[in-house]
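Annex B. Sample input.
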Amino acid sequence: MMHPSALIAFQLQSAIDDRPLTVSPDTTVMAAVKQMNGVDLLQQQLENSDDPARSQRGRIPTSCVLIVDNDRVVGILTDRDIVRLIAQPIDLANLVIRDVMNHPVTVLNEDEFTDLSVGIDLLSQHHIRHLPLLDRHGSLIGLLTRESLQQRSHPNELWREQISKLKQELAERELAQAQLEQTNQELTRSNQLKDEFLTNMSHEFRTPLNAILGMAEGVQEGIFGIVNPAQIQAVKTIEDSSNHLLALINDILDLAKIGAGQIELESSPTDICELCYSSLAFVKQQAIKKQIRLQIQLPPRIPNISIDERRIRQVLINLLNNAVKFTPVGGHIALNVSIESDNTTSSFIRIAVIDTGIGINSTDLHKLFQPFMQVDSALNRQYNGAGLGLALVKGIIEMHGGNVQVRSEIGVGSQFIADLPIPHQESDIAGNIAPQLLEFSQPITDKIDRLNAESLSGQLPRILLAEDNEANIQSISSFLKAKGYHTILARNGLEAINLAQSQLPDLILMDIQMPKMDGLEAIRHIRKQPQLIDIPIVAITALAMSGDREKCLSAGANDYMTKPIKLKQLSITIQQFLGANN
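Annex B, continued. Sample output.
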């Protein structure tokens, strides 16, 4: 945009007539009039009207003619001069300009001004309508008139015009800013609504799943009576299907949180070898059923790097599960780890999952890392899955600053590669060892003896269960009763506070979303009571979004468990807290 002062100078310059009408002093008035614009109108008025007053009302658009003699401006004849002559009883046919012109003429020499401000002052302050402009030699170079300035470039008009344009531009910018702020507010609100939706859906999905899985686990444990093998198998199917649904819900929530940038990595130095072995052990039983040979290859030395161990384990298990799923009976799966470096000084750990599965067409590789995308519908019907696992793999690895690659050939197999960068301060020692086959062995189940509740205090430990969902109340309370605990039930936060004060339980299991008062507020009130300050509180909630754990712990909870909970894990947690207190 042109600066206002420069714009004024440009527009004033455009107001100068650099080719003004000029005549000699001996030119007749009528000849001068014929050179002026609008002569036909004036001549018609002169020829057709006998009324001088009427002729006087005629207007001539061209306002003057300059009289030049020997390249010098010696006079001027204006439209007003001509109108006055017409009003007088004078024969204009033979009248020459020398006899009627105005002189001396006010002129402005080139040396007298650096811009047009001086000329503007003369025209506005000295009642001059026409100002010839002369060069340093006295020759005519142009004409500046008051009318041209007023019409095109009067400074006040220019500034008003500029102010008007600036105001318009400012108004447009303010409108655009307001629209942008409104859009940002709508986006913020949209994100908030999405977060609220995900939180609510997480709660709504996990709450009934908690009851289903709790009941299934309780039936298998014999809490509700003796069941026959066929019934146990049916309940096991219910449990497996519920866990599959839970995994799908977790994947959807994780993918949504990655897309919204809401996942914060909990990085710490991690033993990559141990991580790989534990991940491979996770799919061991599935591989045994399909007679798939598992192999792991590790370098002799590999540095511990700072990663989110839980998330990278999630990546490895996803890749290994896919390999087992798409590898036929009798196939082979390898988990290879190596230390690589690129053309720069950067090094990275490369983890490759290689299978002898069905393979993928090269034209379909771009679909693999897109959410809810299956390679083809027939494959989708044959192999279960929602198409979320690889999208999560890509998101998690990229959050660690790495990247994911895939190589595949139909009928040969696939190779999925995840590269994790090694910080510069870590040593990048490369080298591989001979492949080692993972030895299959029956899983060793950790056996934790149940705490003998009666031997501790002579009475059953009292556990306050704050829960409003009937199915969860039935599954958890039945399990606690079977494990030798006395259950005190509160159906909302207010009841939990009152029962905690009156019953002084040994431990509190606190749901978070409850009527009348939520669990977080109830925990805060309980922690304000001196006699309740040391009672262990375990938050049991369907809230599983980023920051929910921190909210529970900061409110005063000692631990946090996400629904659906494993009843065995709940029992272990209770034993740990009660054992510590005793």
